[in-house]
Specification:
741 residues, alpha+beta, 5-stranded antiparallel beta sheet, 5-stranded mixed beta sheet, 12 strands, 10% strand, elongated, histidine kinase
């Protein structure tokens, strides 16, 4: 019950009106006090530095006097200036060169002077002629422009003489300083004192003697400013001291400014705090109905949003202009304290600020109510105009084929630009500016609509890339009113078809693997019996003798059939994932050396020279050791079967920061006219004539086992060179390996 009563009180018109009045009055007081501070406080430095003797204002004042004295010493006296001894030679030469350039251009135009042709080769006579010609031109310039050069010389003297008089008058009217400046020839001073100790006895001074400078107080922040502002001649002596009475007067004024500024800032801070509190309350409560949910609008809310916003900007701009004029005028000349708030100038400035704040706040709260209602943009003239143009363009673009739509949009844009450009040419300056704004808005809208129209195409392209990577469940979702909605639907349908086809293929592959596994398993029992009986028969002396040979053939072929059946069973299990991996850290170099040692007899019996580079301790991987041993065994057997006799076989184990590599390279004993990708398929042999024994499963088993261990096996064929590369993730000390190959 109490909570309900508090809500009613907080939403009552009295509380809202009080908050509105609080913001308006506080704003008027804050800005008027700020304007008064701007008029009566020279700098915020009074807050950080209470002592005038250490202020940057005094530093700049001293610096100006020092520069003036130094410049006077450069000029010397009136006789030195009139004699032209103080003229800046560089400045004179620059201005003289300008006169020469103008004169020579006019001479070249009148006499049609030109250089030698580019294809003429220079020789001694032409060079000498050019030198003589240059001297003639120089003499002619001196003769014809002697009067103008004399005028230039006198003009520069007169300018320096005027500056000298101005400096002399400015330095003479310096009651705040005692100074003495001399270069041994001329002296400028406003005191009879010449002793350096006299000037260093003041509270603030600056002395320069033989290019050695000293400043006091030494804790000034602007000492570097004195040292680098201008150069002192080595024979200059400048003593400058600040009058103690001047310092006392300035310090008293600075203390008054400090009190005024400190008081004004507290008033402004308090007013700003009240403004924030009242403004937050008004923003929170404005527009709320009795139920606290619905938004209640006022008469002013019928204005369009952009008109209301323009009204706020107009009020702010008008108020700012008048406040600047008040600050620059004689208003608010005297400092303001609590008893001065009833002064006419304060009341006038405050009343004007309050009226401006009322209008601006009234319009601002109207925008807040629209924002709460989520209709800020929809209730603007700009939005309605853009919506009508958009509807018109959509009507054009939704009729006919895509080509017709694009052509119609281009024609509409070109015609609009042409018409607006013609109006800009024929209209006055103000109308031309308006048409320029319309043309800019039209161009911006065309760019926006193009991006808006093409954006669904980008979504479709991104979706195709995702589907291409195998995520067939991905669905492309765009606006059904888009130009590319039909294309998105077709791509989604295509993805569904690919998904169904892939499911069928996976099912067929699984059934084939299960068939191979079952057949291999069923063949094991009869094959075992055949092998056992063949073995028993081979131990008997059969008659006739040729029967023993037949038994030997049966035994050999049955052993080969058993091996083929085991290989087929193994590769089916690996490819179907129906295996258990025993992962451990393995040194591939050690494994390669062990595999070579196990087949040492066959290697020695072959006519091949093995070149092995397998440094142990560098090639650690996480893998199943038994399966990698089978991989290496198959690869070595492949080399022994198909490598060209009396050639070298290279086996290399290497590693980098993230991967380990095992590479087999040999020269083939047959022409390798097969596809390097097909050779890794089951029952595919490189020796298509099949002159050697083999099942075509060795490389397929090797590839499957490497993949099961997280690696990659690749085959490369270059002429007669056959190369197999195994790439695996390198294992770290903690047993982990990088994620991606």
């Amino acid at each position: 019950m109490l909570d309900t009563e508090l809500k009613k009180i907080s939403r009552s018109p009295i509380v809202t009106g009080f908050a509105f009045l609080l913001v308006v009055v506080s704003f008027g007081i804050a800005v008027t006090m700020f304007a008064n501070l701007m008029k009566n406080v020279d700098s915020l430095e009074v807050l950080s530095e209470r002592h005038y003797v250490n202020s940057s204002e005094l530093s700049r004042y001293q610096q100006q006097v020092l520069e003036d004295l130094n410049q006077l010493l450069k000029y010397g006296n009136e006789e030195n200036i009139k004699a032209g001894n103080s003229i800046n030679k560089t400045d004179y030469e620059i201005r003289r060169q300008r006169i020469f350039d103008d004169w020579y251009a006019e001479l070249d135009r009148r006499m049609e002077l030109s250089d030698q042709p580019n294809d003429e080769k220079p020789n001694a006579s032409t060079v000498e002629s050019k030198l003589q010609k240059s001297q003639v031109i120089k003499n002619k310039f001196e003769q014809e422009m002697a009067g103008k050069l004399a005028d230039l010389h006198q003009e520069m003297i007169d300018g320096e003489f005027r500056e000298y008089r101005s400096l002399l008058q400015r330095v003479s009217n310096q009651p705040a300083f005692y100074y003495y400046a001399t270069n041994g020839v001329v002296t400028y001073s406003n005191t009879d004192q010449r002793d350096r100790s006299y000037f260093t006895g003041f509270q603030a001074y600056y002395v320069v003697d033989k290019s050695v400078s000293k400043i006091y107080p030494t804790n000034k922040d602007y000492t570097g400013f004195y040292n680098s502002a201008f150069d002192y001649a080595s024979n200059n002596t400048i003593y400058l001291a600040v009058n103690d009475e001047f310092l006392a007067q300035k310090q008293e004024e600075r203390d008054r400014q400090y009190v005024h500024l400190y008081y004004g800032m507290r008033v402004i801070a308090g007013a700003v705090l009240l403004i924030c509190i009242g403004l937050l309350y008004l923003i929170w409560e404005t527009g709320k109905g009795n139920d606290g949910q619905t938004i209640q609008f006022q008469l002013i809310d019928r204005l369009y949003t952009d008109i209301a916003l323009f009204g706020i900007l107009t009020v702010v701009f008008s108020w700012a202009i008048l406040m600047v004029q008040l600050i620059q005028s004689n208003f608010l000349d005297a400092p303001l304290f609590i008893l001065d708030f009833l002064r006419p100038d304060f009341l006038s400035a405050t009343l004007f600020s309050m009226i401006s704040c009322s209008l601006g706040l009234w319009l601002l709260l109207s925008l807040v109510r629209r924002l709460k209602n989520r209709s800020l943009l929809k209730e603007s003239l700009t939005y309605r105009a853009v919506s009508k143009i958009r509807t018109m363009l959509r009507t054009i673009l939704t009729s006919g084929s895509l080509l017709i739509k694009i052509a119609a949009a281009i024609v509409l844009l070109v015609v609009s630009v042409f018409v607006l450009s013609a109006l800009m040419v024929t209209a006055g300056s103000r109308l031309a500016f308006f048409f320029f704004l319309v043309l800019g808005a039209l161009t911006a809208f065309a760019v926006y609509y193009t991006i808006y129209a093409v954006k669904p195409l980008q979504v479709i392209m991104d979706g195709v890339q995702i589907i291409k990577k195998g995520q067939l469940d991905h669905e492309i979702v765009i606006n059904e009113n888009s130009l590319f909605a039909a294309l998105a639907k077709d791509v989604n349908t295509l993805a569904d078809g690919l998904k169904r086809a892939l499911a069928k293929e996976i099912k067929a592959e699984r059934m084939k693997s299960e068939l191979v596994t079952n057949v291999s398993h069923d063949l094991k029992t009869p094959l075992t019996s055949i092998i056992n009986y063949a073995d028993l028969l081979s131990k008997e002396n059969l008659i006739p003798e040729v029967a023993n040979e037949y038994v030997a053939v049966i035994k050999k072929k049955s052993e080969r059939l058993k091996q083929m059946t085991q290989d087929l069973f193994e590769i089916s299990r690996v490819q179907s994932g129906n295996i258990t991996m025993e992962m451990e850290r393995i040194d591939l170099a050690v494994l390669v050396n062990q595999s070579l040692a196990e087949q040492e007899e066959q290697i020695e019996a072959s006519e091949l020279e093995f070149k092995v580079n397998a440094q142990e301790g560098q090639a650690l991987v996480m893998a199943d050791g038994k399966r990698l041993s089978r991989v290496l065994e198959n690869l070595i057997q492949n080399v022994l079967k198909y490598a060209l006799a009396k050639t070298r076989v290279y086996i290399t184990v290497s590693a980098d920061e993230t991967h380990v590599y095992v590479e087999f390279k040999n020269i083939s004993n047959y022409e390798m006219n097969f596809n390097k990708d097909e050779i890794l398929e089951r029952f595919v042999r490189g020796d298509q004539s099949r002159t050697t024994e083999g099942s075509g499963l060795g490389l397929a088993i090797a590839q499957s086992n490497v993949a099961a261990c997280g690696g990659v096996l690749k085959v490369t064929v270059d002429g007669d060179l056959f190369k197999v590369l195994i790439k695996m993730n390198k294992a770290f000390s903690d047993g982990d390996a990088p994620a991606n190959l």
